[in-house]
Amino acid sequence: MKKKFKIIIALFAFLLLTAGFVYNYVFNAKHRDIASEEATISLSADELYLNFETNEASATVSYLDKVLETKGEISSVEDTDVVLNNRIQVSFNSQHNSSLKKGDFLTIKGRCLGYDELLEVVKIDQATIIK
Fold first, then answer.
1. pTM of structure
2. CA angle 39, 43, 44 (to 5 degrees)
3. Pairing of strands 121-130, 88-92
4. How many angstroms separate the CA atoms of 83 and 74, rounded?
5. pLDDT tens digits, residue range 21-55?
6. What's CA 61's distance to the chain center, in Å?
7. Four-residue CA torsion sign, 130, 76, 53, 119
8. Partners of 75 in beta bridges
């Protein structure tokens, strides 16, 4: 009887320790810094959109969660968002330079989130402006 009790206590302690390590790994993991990462893919806004339009599954595999560089003409400007060529919605972490205006050409680097079928745009977040 004492042997079973010791085994149960040891198993409970092991599970508790494992749960502690998993909690620490999940909730204290280092966050990804897109601004300091090198862009692995460089293409125009039209090329990026066309790739998603022609074969969304293949483009998703190729671009999803990857850091890419893209360029295009600004179609609309909001506080923390810009739309390039009416096809690529770019979200910045903070308010971008207020000197950006519709019609300007812009090159950005950011993480691709994929294609939004409802809005029919490719979404990019955590973007930074490349001069």
1. 0.75
2. 130
3. parallel
4. 6
5. 998 888 887 778 888 889 999 999 999 999 999 99
6. 14
7. positive
8. none
Amino acid symbol at 97: N
Do 90 and 129 touch, CB atoms closer than 8 A?
no
Cα–Cα distance between 82 and 68 in angstroms, integer?
16
Tokens (6 digits) for 14: 């092991």
CB atoms within 10 A of CB 101: 8
Distance CA 121, CA 114 (A): 9
pLDDT tens digits, one per residue of 66-97: 999 999 999 999 878 899 999 999 998 776 66
Residues facing 123 on adjacent strands: 89, 114
Distance between CA atoms of residues 19 and 17, nearest Å: 5
Sole residue written with tokens 């909730």: 27
